[in-house]
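Reopening this one. Same input as before:
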Amino acid sequence: KNVLQICQNFIRSDDKSLIKSAIRCVGRHFLYSTEYICIDFNKIMKCALSESDDELSYISLWLLSNALATNSETISLIENDGNIYDLLYSFFEKSRRLKCKYEAANGMYSIIRQGTKDQIKKAIKSNFISALIQSIEVEVEANGNEIGLTEKILKALNFLFNVKIIQLNDINLTNICWNQFYESCGDSIIENLVQSDSENISLIAQDFL
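Same output, byte for byte:
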């Protein structure tokens, strides 16, 4: 705990080397623990959006992705510090590195998987579905061998449509989800993935359909 408190002080500093070291330490904490820690998520989100330092942007997004994977309470803490939904979406809207998109997809998947109904609604309203589907199309066309992101996106979509919206039992939310899906040509994109050379991707696409 003392180490994590020191990390919090480092994160609030203006020294990028200290900030990066602290972010790595806190990110590892969230990999192995769901215990609450007082962290300035607003500062982390600002670092994630850095366009002048790719490393800082990536490790900040990695920390957020790990934190979002813990529980809905941590998701609430993060969203209280800033618009995590728009931040994640922005990594699909802009030309970002593949590994950043992968962490953003991880974050989206965590919100979809264990977020509250209200959190999932916010995610849908932030166009998570269209962002994820459009990224499948881009990555398959540009990097046929980059299957990690596509697989993660398919898992997120599969869980949302075949598990989560059924559990939530909200007709309006269900309609919004499917409208976004079809408007983004999700049906044809996923149908094409059934023929993927990757067995995992083909199987997940088949499960979705």
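So the earlier flakiness isn't reproducible anymore. For the record, Residues 147-168 form the longest helix (22 residues).
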